[in-house]
From TrEMBL:
Record-given protein name: DBH-like monooxygenase protein 1
An MF annotation (GO) of this entry: copper ion binding
GO CC list: extracellular space; secretory granule membrane
Family the entry assigns: Belongs to the copper type II ascorbate-dependent monooxygenase family.
Biological process (GO), any one: dopamine catabolic process
Localisation per UniProt entry: Membrane
CDD domains assigned to the protein according to its UniProt record, in alphabetical order: DOMON_DOH
Domain DOMON: 48-161, 605-718
Swiss-Prot/TrEMBL cofactor(s): Cu(2+)
InterPro entries to which the protein is assigned, alphabetical: Cu2_ascorb_mOase-like_C (IPR014784), Cu2_ascorb_mOase_N (IPR000323), Cu2_ascorb_mOase_N_sf (IPR036939), Cu2_monoox_C (IPR024548), DBH-like (IPR000945), DOH_DOMON (IPR045266), DOMON_domain (IPR005018), PHM/PNGase_F_dom_sf (IPR008977)
Keywords attached to this entry: Copper, Disulfide bond, Glycoprotein, Membrane, Metal-binding, Monooxygenase, Oxidoreductase, Signal
Species for this entry: Magallana gigas (Pacific oyster)
Length: 725
């Protein structure tokens, strides 16, 4: 191995370490204790026997499962909530040793062990709660047998058995009824903001409402918050769902409406079939919750204004009850809990509803695997809402909403004719799990922007037309966008007009009656018509003048469409040589996640090490200005021998990585047990980046146990130009 070694003493740990062989406790514990602070947690089963903790960054995801069993545990990622197809990992602890297998399903039977083991075991033990398995994997492993983890909704499937596998490579014992699935958004980290001491809460509840014995009911109730006395900011809201009605209450909207007489406070009415013109669900939605969602926090710089001076608006809470069995004995007292503060934040927030207008002119023909329906918000309408606000508005979160046929929803943004990366995408939409998505990066809506919401429906299981409407069996295609600062626009949507179809202006049923949707040729004609027809584009805002306007416009099509970024997976064709000159100035290294520790290991700053550590493992990321291989290791004396060494490089876009150890002052030997695991690698015009993980104690005699003692790091770098001392 050609190159020069340098050394540096670095204090890696600030706390204790773990045992090599975890103990097998016989007690019982009701609540699991994770090995580190995880930002996300889900109880996957109803009785609390399977808890999953996780955290993510730009390159990988770490899971920690705590399961009440002494047998094997398994969980996986599935597009449909079924065992097949699915990316699955199984793990267990036997005689103090932990085992992990990366598998995939090929049917509804025991999953097959992958040829590429891309899930990495970080830690395993049996404790008072049960079995703990901690594992890490890349978001995209570039393995066809693994599921790429994106911002889409994913069904996490799980199972566990009271029995361990027969032997290390043997078959799994059938788990029986210990199984299930839960929809989650793995990459959308929830926002939690500390609440000030002066908060007050208001519960808006349905007051023991007797749900009618029909499949769909939209019940509205009028509330008043004028007793606040002065302007407050809504800084948090959450659902209050009666436990026995969890499967009945589908979504709740809170509208802020003008023109309602105060005598109607406390009155209930049918939201969309009231003959009283004052009793209606207006377009100004200020709170939106749907099944699967939880509490929502506004960011510390913004809150939604309520109780302003001179504001006589009342609140109308709309509750959608889904009662497919048409029971007549359901009494419900669900609703919303609002958390408000009189200490006003810097910005007033608002909510914009956009997409396809809820109207039977939205038509989804039967027998279609992927039928696309779109609605838009014009730049003219957004400009009216923005007014003189030249800085645009900042997006806080987005809730995308469809019904039973919806499979994909995308909220697109077009700026000056160029389509940008979408504001929100869910290619695996689940009607029974609807949650706000926080943008991973700061996003704005600017003057001149236009929005398009498109939904993809699967109607292969229906033999009749599905129309846009409020019933669960109808369809919708909407996005609710929470943003700040508040603009005058509440609702911006469109519906297709089917201009070339006779009687199209009447209603959707009249349009659909002119097609024989059992014929593929007619369905294709209708799809072409849907994509080319003009739309009735509406623009609505309580503070706009006039409050409502509309235009007849063709479907918005960007001059420059958005192109998905290319895959980062290695291809058989070597990547093109970088156009950057070799003499280009390198900026400061940008790590792939936030690291607690950083150290420059070379005096000229060309070798930088980042790391994070917890009580089970350590993650290193090295940034080195070289196109050759890089390496570093741990030594008790600062010399090359003895040392635990890792070496990595990138060639033709393909990363290479080796766990080694020294047996003298010569080339290190590749370890029989590869206990350092590569998480990420890249090479650009400036430097090579390697990101890796290993246990603090690998239980390998060739590796060093990382403890609270200072460890001396050895580093090596090969570069024709640069020299190291």
């Amino acid at each position: 191995m050609v190159g020069k070694w340098s050394l540096l003493a670095v204090y890696l740990l600030a706390a204790g370490t773990i045992n090599c062989l975890p103990s097998h406790s016989t007690g019982a514990r009701n609540v699991p204790t994770p090995s580190e602070a995880f930002p996300q947690h889900a109880q996957l089963d109803v009785n609390g026997s399977f808890h999953l903790y996780w955290k993510t960054n730009a390159t990988h995801i770490t899971f920690e499962a705590h399961v009440r069993t002494r047998g094997y545990v398994g969980f996986g990622l599935s597009p449909n909530g079924d065992m097949y197809p699915a990316d699955i990992v199984t793990g267990w602890v036997k005689h103090g040793h932990a085992y992990l297998q990366d598998r995939h399903s090929t049917g509804h039977f025991e999953p097959t062990v992958d040829s590429s083991q891309d899930w990495i075991l970080l830690h395993g033990e049996e404790n008072e709660f049960g079995t703990v398995i901690k594992t890490i994997r890349k978001l995209d492993t570039c393995d066809d047998d693994d599921v790429k983890i994106t911002n889409d909704t994913v069904r996490v499937i799980f199972s566990y058995s009271e029995n361990e596998p027969h032997h290390r490579r043997g078959s799994l014992v059938y788990h029986g009824t210990h199984r299930g699935a839960k929809s989650l958004m793995l990459l959308s980290e929830p926002r939690k903001v500390p609440l000030p001491s002066d908060v007050i809460t208001r519960d808006l509840l349905n007051g023991r409402f007797l749900v009618p014995d029909k499949d769909t009911t939209y019940n509205c109730k009028v509330f008043d918050l004028l007793n606040l006395g002065k302007k407050h900011h809504l800084i948090k809201f959450e659902p209050v769902i009666q436990k026995e009605n969890v499967g009945i209450v589908h979504h709740i909207l809170l509208h802020k409406c003008s023109g309602i007489d105060r005598k109607y406070i406390g009155v209930e009415f049918d939201c969309y079939n009231s003959h009283n013109h004052q009793l209606k669900a207006c377009s100004n939605v200020i709170v939106s919750w749907a099944v699967g969602g939880g509490e929502f926090y506004y960011p510390p710089e913004a809150g939604l204004p309520l109780g302003e001076s001179g504001d006589s608006d009342l609140l109308v809470m709309e509750t959608h009850y889904n009662n497919p069995n048409r029971r007549n004995d359901i009494v419900d007292d669900s609703g919303l809990r609002l958390t408000l503060t009189p200490t006003l934040r810097q910005h007033d927030a608002g909510v914009l509803t956009t997409g396809v207008g809820v109207n039977d002119l939205q038509i989804v023909p039967p027998f279609e695997k992927e039928f696309l329906s779109s609605g838009f918000c014009t730049s003219e309408c957004l400009n009216k809402g923005l007014g003189n606000n030249t800085g645009g508005v900042n997006i806080i979160a987005i809730l995308e909403h469809g019904h039973l046929l919806a499979r994909k929803i995308r909220t697109r943004i077009i700026r000056n004719g160029t389509e940008l990366d979408p504001l929100a995408v869910d290619n695996n939409y689940d009607f029974n799990f609807q949650e706000f998505r926080n943008p991973p990066n700061a996003r704005k809506i600017m003057s001149g922007d236009a929005l398009v919401v498109e939904c993809t429906y699967d109607s292969t299981q229906r033999s009749t037309v599905t129309y846009g409407g409020f019933a669960t069996s109808d369809e919708m295609c909407l996005s609710f966008i929470i943003y700040y600062p508040k603009m005058g626009l509440d609702l911006c949507e469109s519906v297709p007009m089917y201009n070339k179809v006779p009687r199209a202006q009447s209603n959707g049923h009249a349009v659909a009656s002119q097609f024989n949707f059992t014929l593929e040729s007619d369905r294709n004609k209708f799809k072409m018509l849907t994509s080319t027809t003009k739309h009735w584009a509406g623009c609505n805002g309580a503070s706009l003048t006039p409050q409502y306007t509309h235009q007849e416009l063709p479907m918005l099509i960007p001059q420059t469409p958005y192109v998905e970024p290319p895959s980062m997976c290695p291809s058989v064709t070597p990547p093109m040589t970088s156009s950057h000159p070799k003499t280009a100035v390198c900026g400061a290294p940008l790590p792939t996640e936030q690291f607690d520790f950083q150290e420059s290991l070379a005096a000229d700053g060309k070798y930088v090490l980042f790391w994070n550590v917890n009580k089970t493992h350590i993650i290193f990321e090295v940034h080195v200005e070289t196109k050759g291989y890089i390496g570093f290791g741990m030594s008790p004396n600062g010399k090359m021998y003895p040392a635990d060494v890792v070496v990595g490089w990138v060639k033709d876009g393909v990363p290479h990585f080796q766990d080694r150890h020294t047996v003298g002052h010569s080339q290190p030997i590749v370890d029989a047990s590869q206990d350092w695991h590569l998480l990420y690698a890249r090479e650009d015009h400036c430097r090579t980046v390697l990101k890796m993980v290993r246990k603090l104690d690998t239980c390998d005699d060739e590796d060093f146990k990382i403890t609270t003692n200072t460890k001396t790091l050895l580093l090596e770098e090969v570069n024709i130009v640069l020299k190291w001392s």
